[in-house]
Structures are given as C-alpha cells and as structure tokens.
Amino acid sequence: MPKTLFDKVWDAHVVTEIPGGNQVLYIDRHLIHEVTSPQAFNGLRRRKLPLLRKDRIVATADHNVPTINQHKPITEPLSAKQVRMLTENCAEFGVSLYGLGHPYQGIVHVIGPELGITRPGITMVCGDSHTSTHGAFGAIAFGIGTSQVEQVMATQCLLLTKPQKMRINVDGDLAPGVTAKDIILYIISQIGTGGGTGYFVEYAGSAIRALSMEGRMTICNMSIEMGARGGLIAPDQTTFDYLKGREFSPKGKDWDEAVAYWSSLPTEEGAQFDVELNYKAEDISPMVTYGTNPGMGMGVKEAIPVSSEVHNKASIDKAMKYMGLEAGKQLENHPIDYVFIGSCTNSRIEDLRAVVGLVGNSKVAEGVTAIVVPGSQQVSKQAISEGLDQKLIAAGFEFREAGCSACLGMNEDKVPAGKYCVSTSNRNFEGRQGPGARTILASPLTAAAAAITGRVTDVRELI
Amino acid sequence: MKPFTKLTSSAVPLPIEDVDTDQIIPARFLKAVTRDGFGENLFRDWRFDKLNQPKEDFVLNNPTYSGQILVAGANFGCGSSREHAAWAIGDYGFRVVVSSYFADIFRGNALNNGILPLVVSPSLLDEILQTIEVNPAAAFTIDLEAQTFKNETTGTVSTFDIDSYKKTCLINGYDDIDYLLSQSDLIDKFERERIDFSLK
Ligand code: SF4
C-alpha cells in the first residue's frame, strides 16, 4: 500500500504498541529551553533518574532573555533565576547548552534548523508548541508538556496515540507581495483554530514546493494555530541544499547515504489521508488578523466579518471589544503604534532581507515604535555582515539581540495596553504581547509596510 | 499523580469558545521553577483588573458558582504547550474540565496531571450549561470506572470515551513515565537494532 511521509517516519519510530492503542514512540531529538524544563529536571532528581541520552538533547535560552545588553546580567530576578537554573541543570546532567553569549544561542526553532540539528525523517520534540516548525524538513516534530519533557529525558520515548492525517494542497503562483505567512494565515482563517485538532498535516502542492526553507518553516510553524499536532513538508532538493554543510549535518559518505534515505521519504502516489483540503495560491492576498486568535484573519482589503464559518458572532463581538475595533468595518488604514518583526515564525535572514528590501529609503512613521529581533545570534551576525542592521537603524527601526521577545512578552519587550502592534509572530491572543496589547498578525512585508506608513497597509501598493 | 475515580460536584460555567492557554495562565507567570502555586493566577487577566482587584463580572469571582468541575466552550486549551495551564487548573481545585473538544496538547497535559478532560457532545454541553444557569448549585457525577457522566438534576446519564490505558493511569494515579521505564528493555533493543539513517 502506498505510504505517506508521515506514516513512514512515524512507523519507523514505534518501539511497541500497548493495549488501548497507545504506541511507544522513539524520539531522536529533544530541544529544551528555560521555561518548560526546570520542573522536568526536578522530576528526574526526585525520582533519582539519569538523563538517558545526552547526545540527543540540546538546550538554549530564548523565552525569557533580554534583547538589549545581553552581555550584562539579567536584571529581572525571576528571569535571571530561570536562565541560571537552566545553566545549572545542563551542567549537572551534561546537556549541551547554547546559552546567552554563545554564538549559537537563539530561538529554539530557529537554531535547530540552522545548525542542522533538524533533518528529514527524524522525530523531534520540545516543550514548546511551535516545535511544528521543524516539520518543514520532513521531520515529525511536535510540542509537548513538561511531564513529557521529563519522560523523554528519562526514556527517550513518549506514549502517544497516532494522530490522523490531513493533507493541505496549495497550488498555483503567489502574487507579488504575498508570502508564506499569508498562505498559513489564509488556511487558518478558513478552517479555524480548532480545524486541525487531532491531525498531523502535510502541506503539498506547487505553491508549497516553490517556497524556500524559511517559507516552509513559517508554514509548519503555525500548524499548531489550527490545532494540528504538527505539520510537515516532503524533503526535496531545496531541503538538501539548505542542510548541506551545516554544523551538525552529515558529511562525506554519510551525507550521500542520508540524502538517498531522505529521498525515499516523500508521500507516494495514491497514499490515503483522512482529510484532504485544496486551496489556490491565486486566492490568497496579504493577510491581517482582526481578532484575538489566529483564525480571525482576512485579506487586508476586506471588512471585518460580523460572523464567519469558524467564528460565531459572540466570539467576534468579544474580540472586537478587546481590540477596540468594529465588525463590518475595514482594518486597512487603521493607525498602529508598534511593529514587531521577530519570533520563530518570521525572524530568519530571509525575513530581515525582505523587510529591508521593502523599506528602502523610507523612514519609520512618526509615533511608531518598530523593533526587529533576529531569531538567533547567527541570523544577527549574517544581517550585520550584509549591512541590514545599519539600513534598519537608519530607517528608524531598533535592531535587537536574539530571543523570543515581544512574541510573548516574558522579558521587558511588551506592547503597552490598548496599543496596536502589527506583528510577524504567531499569536494574537488577548494579552499575548503584554496585558491589554492589541496584536495584528501579518507577514514581514505587511509589517514593514505598516512601519513606514503608520497604518495597516496593503503592501502591494508599495511594491 | 493524584488518583481520580468518582466525583460529585457542582460546576463553574465558562461558556467561551477557544479559551487559549495565554488566558488560562499568562506568560508572565511562567517564571516559576516548581509546579506549585499557579492556581492564584488562573485566568489572571480575566479575573483581576490592572490594580489587581477582582473583576466582579468574571465567573470565578462570583460566589454563586463553585465546584471542582469547569464547563467550558469548544476548543478549550488551544495555543501553547505550557503544562502550567493544567497545573493552574489543578492547583485552583478543578478535577474535571468539560467541553465539546479540547486542544490536543492541553488534553494530554491535563491527563498527565490527574485532571479529567471530559468530552461531551455540543448538545449535552448546552444542556449542562442550561442546568447550571437554572440552578448554580446543580450537581453532576462523574464515574470514571463506569465512564458515565450524570446530570443529577435531570437524571440524564451519558457515557464518555477515554482510552483504556489513560483510564487505568488516572484511576491508579500512575504516570506515563512509570510505564515507559518498565519498557526500557524494549527501548534499548530498538536503539540497538534500528538502522539509524537519519542521524548519521
Ligand atoms: S518566538 Fe514566540 S512562539 Fe516562538 S518559541 Fe518563542 S515564544 Fe514561542
């Protein structure tokens, strides 16, 4: 029977099946960070268990770190404590840590791929829901809770029921100004934040194949925003070209063998999915969200719906109250206060290049605070070597150091209550960017356009 | 993990859809390094205003409603993988969350912390909410062994699904980790025997 990419990778990792349908799944790679790991390390200590496989776990500090003066001690005591605990735990248990000051430090989902830790055909977990990002390489990657972090530390395995399979095909060509972020915001606006619950999603079709690895990561990253367990994309030449020569990528004869294996992974003709959805790239325009979950999105020229297929009137009314917006009205040209370019969705070098390309000689609009937070030290270094930082600073952006930053506002980078922020991150939940903050999710291009006009803008009119 | 077998309690209604983990426990409260004390900040920004005064219109601040069962709208627990959400719910005193469906990661986290995520049909969810509206003290009984949910007011008994392994864990207070450790020979064998193309 023809098999899907998902089945091939999953089935190759099943250690055993237990009565009731749960399977013991072997985990190849485990990424950890400071927020969801301390209780897991405590658990190991309490149970007097060793860390089973030190060579399969990598740590970084990202959620809680400042993005200014990272070389100085963290001033916020609780954040400082959490980061210190990570350092101590990693030292005690022998975990490789790319902590503050390390040239590989960065958002966990940015550093995995850029170091070649992520690769096709593996299983990968992290105590973070956006672990789905790594699926862009044809890996089975998903977020787990802290109890499961402890399980993987102790046994390198998880007990899981196999998710169902969904394939989402996007065919055709994207119009200029429309990006991978717009594709995924469009899909989520169509199926809602719960539409993928219980499924692992494979993204396919010519519009997906045409994307760079950065674009594919943006798509897989937001799989969780439709409730999917994870997302993945078949590995191909684009994947291999990206991975070749990376720090932990296979080398020499191992590389050739790996590529041969990876090439055998894509879904075969005729393989069955539980659900299959089809979209046309031509139907997608630059997207913005108007509400308080990522499913509340629309084309930038559209009016905010009064109710939709996936959101009833009560939900939209509640969101409008929080956002200070009105259903039935347009969001285009609405004034904004902040622009945040960063997060594991859109903080890679390609995103920064796109922003600089769009901004050109323009300046950030009067009254707008615009910050750019590279996803990792390596992205930052690359941006500096290309002179992107200077161009951004000249235009009036702040260029920060690597971390999660205003994506979730655990550090100092928060959007004040009532202010509007066009953000390239992945969640517009109430309070996500700070208590009372009002988030409008968009692509890096749309965010850059908003920065220079000071309004929600159709980026197509600037290119 | 605290075992769960049978519970009779009144319930707290939260008829909002897509309640995300950032509402259950906002990110700024994730800085703790232990599992305790999160109940204080459960639904923090819905529960308290900027000056940390309780918001009267939020259900947890309304003395009319109490109990160990939280009844919420569809897609409860969407968003982040933070287990702190389940810890906050448990620490506050809830043992059961009832909804028409749960986000996957939250459901797993709840089960790993002895909290039962109980899935009911959308119509039963409406019926439960109506019962509570009429009588905030209305009692409900959950019998995990029998997999039944009883509305003590109307007398309706419905059954619910739960996978047999997870059910055993809840009833006995077992963690997955206990089970996985018992499989260590198989895990070891798997590691030795598989051809690990992917990780060379
Ligand atoms: S950037 Fe945002 S979404 Fe990504 S890992 Fe950090 S906090 Fe989570």
From TrEMBL, chain A:
What does it catalyze? (2R,3S)-3-isopropylmalate = (2S)-2-isopropylmalate
Q: Where is the Aconitase/3-isopropylmalate dehydratase large subunit alpha/beta/alpha domain?
A: 7-454
Give the residues the record marks as binding [4Fe-4S] cluster. Answer: 344, 404, 407
Q: Which UniProt keywords apply?
A: 4Fe-4S, Amino-acid biosynthesis, Branched-chain amino acid biosynthesis, Iron, Iron-sulfur, Leucine biosynthesis, Lyase, Metal-binding
Q: Which Pfam families match?
A: Aconitase
Which principal EC class is assigned to this enzyme? lyase
Q: Which InterPro entries would you find in this protein's record?
A: 3-IsopropMal_deHydase_lsu, Acnase/IPM_dHydase_lsu_aba_1/3, Acoase/IPM_deHydtase_lsu_aba, Aconitase_4Fe-4S_BS, Aconitase_4Fe-4S_dom, IPM_dehydratase_rel_enz, IPMI_cat
Which biological process annotations from GO are given for this protein? L-leucine biosynthetic process
Q: Which GO terms describe its molecular function?
A: 3-isopropylmalate dehydratase activity; 4 iron, 4 sulfur cluster binding; metal ion binding
> Which pathway?
Amino-acid biosynthesis; L-leucine biosynthesis; L-leucine from 3-methyl-2-oxobutanoate: step 2/4
Which PROSITE patterns did the record assign? ACONITASE_1 (PS00450)
Can you quote the record's cofactor note? Binds 1 [4Fe-4S] cluster per subunit.
The enzyme's E.C. designation: 4.2.1.33
Co-factor(s) = [4Fe-4S] cluster
Which NCBIfam families does the record associate with it?
leuC, PRK05478.1, PRK12466.1
Q: What family does the Swiss-Prot or TrEMBL record give for this protein?
A: Belongs to the aconitase/IPM isomerase family. LeuC type 1 subfamily.
Q: Whom does it interact with, and what assembly results?
A: Heterodimer of LeuC and LeuD.
Question: What name does the UniProt record give this protein?
Answer: 3-isopropylmalate dehydratase large subunit
Automatic annotation (TrEMBL), chain B:
Enumerate the spans annotated as Aconitase A/isopropylmalate dehydratase small subunit swivel domain: 1-121
InterPro entries hit by this protein = 3-IsopropMal_deHydase_ssu, Aconitase/3IPM_dehydase_swvl, AconitaseA/IPMdHydase_ssu_swvl, IPMI_Swivel, LeuD
Question: What GO cellular component entries does it have?
Answer: 3-isopropylmalate dehydratase complex
Segment forming the signal sequence: none
Q: Which GO terms describe its biological process?
A: L-leucine biosynthetic process
Q: What is its EC number?
A: 4.2.1.33
Instruction: Kindly state which reaction or reactions the protein catalyses.
Output: (2R,3S)-3-isopropylmalate = (2S)-2-isopropylmalate
Q: Name one GO molecular function term.
A: 3-isopropylmalate dehydratase activity
Q: Name the pathway.
A: Amino-acid biosynthesis; L-leucine biosynthesis; L-leucine from 3-methyl-2-oxobutanoate: step 2/4
Identify the keywords attached in UniProt to this record, alphabetized.
Amino-acid biosynthesis, Branched-chain amino acid biosynthesis, Leucine biosynthesis, Lyase
Describe the family membership recorded for this protein in Swiss-Prot or TrEMBL: Belongs to the LeuD family. LeuD type 1 subfamily.
What role does this protein play?
A: Catalyzes the isomerization between 2-isopropylmalate and 3-isopropylmalate, via the formation of 2-isopropylmaleate.
How the protein assembles, per its UniProt entry?
Heterodimer of LeuC and LeuD.
Q: What is this protein called?
A: 3-isopropylmalate dehydratase small subunit
Q: What is the organism of origin for this protein?
A: Neolewinella aurantiaca
